Amino acid sequence: MYIFLILLFIWNVAKADECQWQELDDKCLKYCWITFKPALFNLISTEKQLEEFKTLQLNTNNLLTTNLALTKSLENQLGLKETQVKQVEQNVEACASRVRTTEESLQEQRNMTEKCQNEKIQLSEELASTKSLQNQLVARSSLENVESKLQNMENQLRQVEGTVETCRASIKSTEETLMKQRTLKEECQNERRKFKKIGQKYYHIENNEKLSWFSALQRCAEWGGHLVHLKSDEEWNLVKEKLEMGYRYWVDLNDLQTDNTFMSATTGEEAKFVKWHSGEPGPDNNEHCVELGRFDGFDMNDFYCFEKKNFICESSNERVFNYN
Ligand SMILES: [Ca+2]
Asked: Ligand 1 center to residue 197 CA distance, Å?
């Protein structure tokens, strides 16, 4: 373009030499104007284009600068990213290292866990063995306790057996006593059967055994009766007809409490019926118990109470004789 303008300028200058300066005002100037006008416009246009080009170049430079700055920034960012990538790679490596360490630790833990499980199994077996031994000890202790309790129970059993034996002995003694009582009762009953009805009452005239007045009193009581208590001549006459001649019989009268005041041991009252032999009761103050048969008949006589004589019992309860 510049080369073309230069060539065009040179050609116009060569054409101008043909014109006279005096003709410039009209001929040459017009010519020149005609000649330079396109060039001038072209130059203006070229300058505008140049300006635009410069502007464009400036913009381009700015854009390039911007791009460079951007590129620089990108490069910086890239460097930063690379640094970060390196950091990440280092982190990854560190993580991988830690993973390996963790795996190793995990493996160690697994090994430790397996070892612990084995030890646990072994401890469990030892614990089971210990428990078994403990149970055996407890069982042995329980057995000892049971043996001790059994010994105590045996001792208690011996005591109970002793008590039972004592009870048996007591029962046996009681049975024997009861048997004796039954025997005595039977004897008494048998003796009661000895009572015979004489008149309106029942009497037993003991002709075999001789007792003191006191013993005779007791014996009649044992038989369920009392020494005979005569109340009237009728009773006296009926009884004396049954007596053996030469025998002497105790009756229930005595003056043991007050001399010469004869009381009935049956009624506790002073005797209302007496049949004294002549001269009786005598002056001997030691004679306090009354008998029949001292003399030829069976009149009454006071005599020594401890002398053993036959005796006459009278029933105190008529029901005793119902079975006769
Ligand atoms: Ca006398």
From this structure: 30
